[in-house]
Design a protein that fits this description.
Immunoglobulin-like; 181 residues; 7-stranded antiparallel beta sheet; mainly beta; binds calcium ion
Length: 181
């Protein structure tokens, strides 16, 4: 009886764990063909997030031959502020370049650039890989974010720069925090 009770308590304790458990690496899958049809690319297949000791790496995997012109990655580092604290942007211009900006809301006109990096590239398989030093995602003197959540928008230059596919959803982050490894 006692064993049963302990087992039951253990099960209850497990069920009581917060849904937003941390992990060093997560994958967010996205449905195929759910993008806004504009005649251009931008259908995201999945997003992978790695939180390493010195960098946060976000890999955006488009459906085959369906890359967007432009990717916007919103980074949540603080649950007390409902929106993102940082935005990463990269385009497929001749010389791909990654910018990191500090923001207070989803669309912050006063965004402040914290880093401008060459550490953005497309892999041979068309994956857009953002590799950001943690120092770009922290206030001065801070150690860097304990954990991050991510939102990715695919955008095109034509007919406009409105998002055509968003992971996981408009103005929402992945459920799971990705803790530093
Ligand atoms: Ca998709
Ligand atoms: Ca936040």
């Amino acid at each position: 009886m006692r064993t049963t009770t302990i087992a039951a308590l253990a099960t209850t304790a497990l069920l009581a764990l917060p849904a937003a458990a941390s992990a060093q690496t997560i994958t967010m899958d996205d449905p195929k063909g759910d993008q806004v049809r504009t005649g251009f690319g931008g259908d995201v297949d999945r997003v992978e997030v790695e939180h390493l000791k010195t960098r946060v790496v976000v890999s955006v995997v488009p459906e085959k031959d369906d890359a967007a012109d432009y990717w916007v990655v919103h980074v949540d580092t603080d649950a007390r502020n409902p929106g993102p604290e940082y935005v990463l942007g990269a385009s497929v211009e001749v010389e791909p370049r990654l910018t990191v900006s500090k923001v207070d809301t989803w669309h912050d006109p006063d965004a402040t650039r914290t880093c401008s990096l060459r550490s953005f590239r497309y892999t041979d398989t068309g994956v857009a890989r953002f590799s950001v030093p943690r120092r770009c995602l922290r206030p001065a003197g801070d150690q860097g974010p304990k954990h991050v959540r991510i939102n990715v928008e695919a955008r095109n230059d034509y007919p406009d720069r409105k998002p055509v596919d968003v992971v996981p959803a408009h103005h929402a982050f992945g459920k799971r925090w990705v803790a530093v490894g």
